[in-house]
Design a protein that fits this description.
disordered N terminus, five-stranded antiparallel β-sheet
């Protein structure tokens, strides 16, 4: 297992230290943006993020997708296999609590290198006897051609084939554990059915709009070319209200700087209505806040903070997830739990017990060290323990009996939701 450099922790919490990196790389994306800004004026931060991250030719994710030791950031599954294993157990415990339906789609949004899915599938294999009568399949929603190739190698050993244009999945195969696996560009393309959704460090990379309160009311923060310095970008305020200002600022807002991610809202609405219709659950793990933070937009390159406006397309851009907004956007179609801190969630899932077992089974001191180091990385409040959160969407009947009106105690109590309560596995 690669040891995560401590610098990886810098990506985790907004306001963490680390000097912004000097601009480097080729300036193709900057030249493209500069032309666009000169021709049509400033763009929203959302539009800037979309170009910098997913522009087909020069976007950061489309071209590089720097996850892992040699990339620009490291994620929890890259640090420790225990993380993914416990998430796998969460899905199985929810599947059991919901009466063991006979199909089980695992749908991951933005699966990175596929490490997390791999860890979850290992758990499914170990618990194959429990899942024996269940039809399990894996569905990955991935826009990056480069990352989907990496995922295919990791999860199938390369046993995949591209699909014709008229199929909803653009690629399919069989995992090393013998389960059908499919790739899609959009969550809409994933077939309906009983599904467990996973979004780990997915929402934080979606484009945000930024707003600033001024004496004249709310103004949107835009990106423009700096007239003083050729080909340098700068933030400016919109001269008047923009459509986004009208649509996204709540009348009861008390902060003076707000970030809103409409795409996250749309995806949560889709998840909530799918869960309402077909059952299942969604688990979101990300750094974020519950509607309290203001300016969290930042860039990462080579594990260091990087100026968001310099050398676009060469750095990862990210912003904290506003869980209060996600809750609002679920619009009551699904019940929500959390956010709760990562260390509480993992503790409830039995990480301490799992660590003890792994330590007892580890022969050499290097593995021993690595296990303790990765546990500290995931659980230490100063590292990932406090700034990562878990948030779940579940069908209402999972938390409240549909016929609560009759006050008799004939109904057995519903099993608690693991992670948000202590895990009780019979």
């Amino acid at each position: 297992l690669p040891t995560a450099p401590a610098a990886a922790a810098a990506r985790l919490c907004s306001g963490a230290g680390g000097e912004a990196e000097a601009a480097g790389g080729d300036g193709a994306m900057l030249r493209h943006l500069a032309r666009k800004l000169r021709a049509s004026g400033p763009v929203t931060v959302a539009e800037y993020m979309r170009e910098a991250l997913t522009n087909p030719g020069q976007g950061y994710y489309t071209r590089r997708g720097g996850v892992g030791e040699s990339g620009d950031f490291i994620t929890s599954p890259e640090i420790s296999q225990v993380f993914g294993e416990l998430i796998g157990i969460w899905y199985i415990s929810e599947w059991m609590a919901m009466g063991k339906p006979n199909t089980f789609q695992l749908v991951e949004l933005g699966p990175g290198r596929g490490t997390l899915t791999e860890d979850i599938l290992r758990v499914f294999k170990q618990l194959a006897s429990v899942l024996s009568k269940c039809d399990v399949s894996v569905h990955l929603v991935e826009v990056s051609p480069k990352l989907s190739e990496i995922q295919a190698v990791m999860l199938t050993g390369g046993k995949v084939q591209p699909n014709p244009e008229d199929k909803s999945a653009y690629m399919e195969g069989i995992t090393k554990t013998g389960i059908p696996i499919f790739w899609y560009r959009d969550i809409q393309d994933v077939p309906p059915g009983y599904s467990f959704y996973l979004a780990h460090e997915f929402f934080d990379a979606l484009p945000i709009h930024k707003f600033q309160k001024t004496e004249k009311g709310w103004r949107e923060v835009l990106v423009d070319i700096d007239p003083e310095v050729p080909d340098q970008l700068r933030f400016v305020l919109s001269p008047s209200r923009t459509p986004a200002t009208q649509n996204f600022i709540q009348p009861e807002e008390t902060r003076d700087h707000v970030e809103v991610c409409p795409e996250a809202g749309v995806i949560v609405q889709r998840l909530a209505s799918r869960i309402e219709k077909d059952g299942g659950a969604a688990l979101v793990a990300d750094y974020g806040h519950d509607g309290t933070k203001t300016d969290t937009f930042r860039g990462f390159r080579n594990h260091k903070l990087h100026d968001v406006l310099s050398a676009p397309g060469t750095a990862d851009l990210t912003a904290d997830v506003d869980f209060s907004y996600l809750r609002k956007m679920a619009q009551g179609r699904a019940a929500t739990l959390g956010p709760i801190k990562q260390r509480e969630f993992l503790k409830n899932m039995g990480i301490d017990l799992r660590l003890q077992v792994l330590l007892q089974n580890s022969g050499d001191s290097a593995t021993h060290e690595q296990l303790l180091h990765s546990y500290d990385m995931l659980m230490n409040p100063e590292k990932m323990g406090d700034c990562f959160n878990f948030f779940a969407l579940l069908p209402h009947h999972r938390l409240v009996h549909p016929d609560k009106k009759d006050k008799s105690d004939s109904k057995p109590p519903l099993p608690p939701v693991a992670g948000f309560n202590e895990l009780l596995l019979k």
